[in-house]
């Protein structure tokens, strides 16, 4: 008998056995593979869950800012940052094979945004708060960022009008699994995993100048 048995989802099951619920796969001394009917081997539930991460329908962060990135902002201004509330939700995916059903569940834990200025990424533990036209200065958010330098001056101190910072963000998920049936375990956790990075945006950061007149 092959040790270990091919992982759940391996094309060998379909090629040799026709499905993944009947028996175990063996090999002759000449290398020919065949299936022996009978009780399937116990499924490595945690291993299957790790494979399922690649199939999980993670959200690709649609990062929004206020002021909007199509406009411009200023040094030391608190820019609101958020992702749509519709993206902040649990996702799940399941696989049934060899008499076991493994279900992976992933819950958003944070989203990070590289604001493009070389500083550490902005980390927010919620979707943030959407800024809406008409909000007063008293409005607050848990996710904001203030640039400390302009985008129009490079590291060499050269000025270039219209130069922008490029920002990108991604969601992170805390992942857990459970298994019913022919399982090696009933449940467990896998830690935190990143979703694919979102589309890049560019924002111009300017600096207000004070003019003193007599």
Describe the structure.
With 214 residues, the protein is mostly beta strands. The protein folds into 2 domains: 41 residues, no CATH class; 165 residues, no CATH class. The protein is built from 2 helices and 12 strands; from the N terminus they run αββαββββββββββ. Strands 4, 6, 7, 8, 10, 11 and 12 form a 7-stranded mixed β-sheet that branches. The protein is elongated and about 95 Å long. The chain starts with 10 loop residues before the first helix and ends in an 8-residue tail after the last strand. The mean pLDDT is 87.
Strand content: 35-45%
How confident is the prediction overall: mean pLDDT?
A: 87
Helix/strand structural class: mainly beta
Give the overall form.
elongated
Secondary-structure element pattern, one letter each:
HEEHEEEEEEEEEE
What's the assembly state of these chains? Answer: single chain
Round the Cα radius of gyration to an integer and report it. 26 Å
Counted by DSSP, the helix tally is: 2
Total domains, how many? Answer: 2
Q: Biggest β-sheet: count, sense, barrel?
A: 7 strands, mixed
Total DSSP E strands: 12
Uncertain residue segments: none
Termini Cα gap? 93 Å
Helix content: under 10%
């Amino acid at each position: 008998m092959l040790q270990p048995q091919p992982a759940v989802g391996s094309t060998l099951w379909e090629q040799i056995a026709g499905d993944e619920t009947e028996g175990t796969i063996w090999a002759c001394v000449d290398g020919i593979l065949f299936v022996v009917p009978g009780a399937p081997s116990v499924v490595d539930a945690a291993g299957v869950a790790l494979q399922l991460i690649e199939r999980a329908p993670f959200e690709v962060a649609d990062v929004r800012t206020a002021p909007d990135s199509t406009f411009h902002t200023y040094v030391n201004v608190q820019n609101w940052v958020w992702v749509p509330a519709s993206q902040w939700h649990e996702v799940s995916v399941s696989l049934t094979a060899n008499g076991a059903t493994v279900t992976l569940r992933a819950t958003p834990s944070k989203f990070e945004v590289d604001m493009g200025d070389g500083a550490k990424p902005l980390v927010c533990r919620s979707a943030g708060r959407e800024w809406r036209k008409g909000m007063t200065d008293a409005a607050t958010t848990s996710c904001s960022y203030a640039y400390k330098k302009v985008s129009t001056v490079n590291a060499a101190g050269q000025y270039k009008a219209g130069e922008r910072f490029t920002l990108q963000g991604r969601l992170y998920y805390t992942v857990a699994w459970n298994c019913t049936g022919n399982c090696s375990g009933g449940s467990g956790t896998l830690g935190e995993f990143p979703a694919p990075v979102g589309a890049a945006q560019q924002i111009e950061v300017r600096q207000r100048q004070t003019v003193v007149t007599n």
